Amino acid sequence: MTIATINTHSTLTMKNLDREVQKPLPLPKRKQLKTTASLTPSRSLLPLHLFHFSSPLNSRNPATLQRTTHTRTEIFSSRNTHIINKIKDNKDNHVIFSFEFFTPRYPESATPKDDQSKINDNFISMVSRMASYNPSYCDITWRPISADMTVELASRMQYEVPVDTMMHLTCLGMSMKEIDKAIDMCREKGVRNIMALRGDPPNGKTRDDLSESKKGNLVYGSDLVKHIRSKHGDFFGLAVAGYPEAHPDYIPEGSVAPAQGFKKDLNYLKEKVEAGADFIVTQFFFDTSVFFKFVDDCRRCGIDCPIVPGILPIVTYESFKKMTTKCRTKVPKKICDEIDEIMKKDPKQLETYGVDLAVKMCKDILQHEIKALHFYTMNKEEPILKILQELGLV
Question: How many alpha carbons lie under 13 Å from residue 304 in its C-beta half-sphere?
Answer without folding.
Answer: 4
